[in-house]
Write a structure and sequence with these properties.
Helices cover 0% and strands 38% of the residues. It has 125 residues and is an all-beta fold. It has one domain (20-112): Sandwich (Immunoglobulin-like). The strands form three sheets. A four-stranded mixed β-sheet has the order 2-9-8-5, with no helix packed on it. The chain has a three-stranded antiparallel β-sheet with strand order 3-7-6, with no helix packed on it. 16% of the residues are buried. One calcium ion (CA) is lined by residues 30, 83-84, 113-114, 116.
C-alpha cells in the first residue's frame, strides 16, 4: 500500500539581465544651462521589482558621453548646446540590475532649435 503525494516542482528564480534601456524624452532645447534634465531613464527587466542603476559607458555610440551626466535615473546635460553648431548627440548608457547583469544601448539626443534674436550692435565712429 502506498500513499499518493502531490509532487511539487520548485522553479528557482534566476536573475535575468535587463533587456532594454528606455528614454521617453530624448530632445533638449539649445541654450539650456548645464544640469538640465533631458529625461528619466527606464528599463525593462524580466525580474519584477529588480533594481536598475544607470551610467554612461564607453563603446559604440559613446561619442558624446562627455556632454551628459546621469544622476540616479535622470539624464542631465553637462554642456550648453547650440543647435546651429550640433543637432544630435550620441551616448551609450548601461543599465545594471541588482545581480550585476547589464544591458547597453546607444541613444541619440536631439537638440531642438530656439529662435534666437539677432543681436545688432550699433557701431559709431
Ligand atoms: Ca534582472
Ligand atoms: Ca544657437
Ligand atoms: Ca537657434
Amino acid at each position: 500500500m502506498y500513499v499518493e503525494q502531490p509532487l511539487t516542482v520548485k522553479v528557482l528564480n534566476l536573475n535575468e539581465p535587463p533587456t532594454n534601456v528606455l528614454l521617453p524624452n530624448y530632445t533638449v532645447k539649445e541654450n539650456q544651462p548645464v544640469g538640465t534634465t533631458v529625461g528619466t531613464l527606464n528599463t525593462s527587466d524580466p525580474d519584477a521589482g529588480d533594481t536598475a542603476s544607470y551610467r554612461l559607458v564607453a563603446g559604440p555610440g559613446s561619442t558624446d558621453n562627455a556632454s551628459f551626466t546621469i544622476s540616479g535615473n535622470e539624464l542631465k546635460t553637462a554642456a550648453v548646446f547650440n543647435f546651429e553648431a550640433k543637432r544630435a548627440y550620441s551616448i551609450r548608457v548601461r543599465v545594471t540590475d541588482q545581480g550585476g547583469l547589464y544591458f547597453e544601448k546607444m541613444k541619440t539626443v536631439d537638440v531642438t532649435n530656439v529662435n534666437e534674436r539677432l543681436r545688432t550692435f550699433a557701431c559709431r565712429t
